[in-house]
Amino acid sequence: MLNIILFGPPGSGKGTQATNLIEKYGLLHISTGDLLRQEIKDETPLGLEAKNFIDKGLLVPDDVVIGMISAKLDSNSNAKGVIFDGFPRTIAQAEALDRLLEFKKAPINIMLALHVNDDALAERLLKRGATSGRTDDQDPAIIRRRIEVYKNETSPVANYYGTQGKLVNIPGEGTIEDTFALLVKELE
Ligand code: AP5
Ligand code: MG
């Protein structure tokens, strides 16, 4: 199995690049943000709980997202490999993921961390918010909070994989094609 974490702040291009990478490498894409938005659309109890956090730009509780990831891995046990997008976002999530993958004897191979400056992130997200309907993309204050939450709660996860020798930093301010080429070069 090839298990990749695509890491980076909100708007850094995780979803965009994951879509291209799964096509090239035949991997399963697991985005906790996409899974949560589907739960909200389906008006499930989990979705209703998650919406309170997402609309404020805060993280959904660890047990909720860890449960979702565990179920998703169980229902895709034949996958050639997985691109994790937007997960893990806390050290507790990273530890839980390591335990789940240890059970499958298929650890994380690499964390690819995208780097984009805050102004460019906010600009990308606001632009998408004008058309996407994503409630958390429309208010500059919520976008700023998402970036702050990333810095405070999520960025330590990079060090967690760094100490395992798995972290690779990738500049993400070029075009979508430029960034894709850098990611492919690293994986090849
Ligand atoms: P999530 O859905 O994961 O959102 P996010 O990480 O905040 O950021 P995005 O998905 O918006 O950005 P992205 O990096 O995927 O960039 P994208 O490719 O879309 O999470 C949403 C919320 O759910 C969280 O705030 C939290 O509440 C909750 N949540 C999710 N996972 C959780 C977890 N594990 N634990 C707890 N809570 C969790 O690109 C963004 C835009 O930029 C697009 O319009 C794209 O076209 C454009 N773009 C991309 N690349 C480029 C480029 N190179 N140049 C110009 N534009 C570009
Ligand atoms: Mg995304």
Walk me through this protein's architecture.
The chain has 188 residues and is of the alpha/beta class. α1 packs across α9, α2 (32-41) packs across α3 and α4 packs parallel to α5 (91-103). A 5-stranded parallel beta sheet has the order 2-3-1-4-5. The radius of gyration is 16 Å and the shape is globular. The model has no long low-confidence stretch (mean pLDDT 96). The chain is built from 9 helices and 5 strands; from the N terminus they run βαβαααβαβαααβα. It has a single domain, classed as Rossmann fold.
Could you outline the blueprint of secondary structure elements for this entry?
Elements: E1 2-7, H1 14-25, E2 28-31, H2 32-41, H3 45-54, H4 62-74, E3 81-85, H5 91-103, E4 110-115, H6 118-132, H7 140-154, H8 156-162, E5 167-171, H9 176-187
Parallel strand pairs: 1-3, 1-4, 2-3, 4-5
The structure holds BIS(adenosine)-5'-pentaphosphate (AP5) and magnesium ion (MG).
